[in-house]
Amino acid sequence: MVRLTVDLIAKNSNLKPRKEETLAQCLKKITHINFSDRNIDSIDDLSLCRNLSVLYLYDNRISQVTNLNYTTNLTHLYLQNNCISCIENLSSLKKLEKLYLGGNCIAVIEGLEGLEELRELHVESQRLPLGEKLLFDPRTLRSLAKSLSTLNISNNNIDDIKDLEILENLNHLIAVDNQLMHVKDLELLLRKLMKLWKMDLNGNPVCLKPKYRDKLILMSKSLGG
Description:
It is found in: Cytoplasm, Cytoskeleton, Microtubule organizing center, Centrosome. This protein has helices at about 5-10, 25-30, 140-145, 185-190, 210-220; strands at about 1-5, 30-35, 40-45, 55, 75-80, 100, 110, 120, 135, 150, 170-175, 200.
């Protein structure tokens, strides 16, 4: 059991406080924290790290995202390969640009309302019960409609991506190793996603259809060859 606390951060960082500085003043200077692969299972109150912009917590044992309410300058959050089953408690991270949640146990992409600066969302390879697929909450998709430009949903047993048509500024969709089957469904999506220039579908059944790439490129005004 290892809890990420400000004391642990102070002990393991290269901070060299001046004689007259308090721990709080010192912690306020930190912009990057890397505690990946450290057996962290929970996050304590990090409100003293007011200027934190990048937080690396991948390859840990975190089951719940907590106590990030005051890290409001966070732009990059790396939480891949943990034990998270629910996306929550991120609504105050108004400056967040990149969120990495791959390799967790998340069944529904939700709880991202209000993150109007989020440009990249990586939710690949969720550890889901056999036969289940990753789902999308319409409210979260609506809230990301104007900001999201890169989405990675690979290896999540997904057989339908028509809900993504609302993401009007999406330009890179990574959806490898899913269950997408029908060229027609993808053509309908491409009619809506006018800014999509790259789409990776390797490992989907649709890739076995004759000339599927040619058909999609012809259908899209933006997709590259």
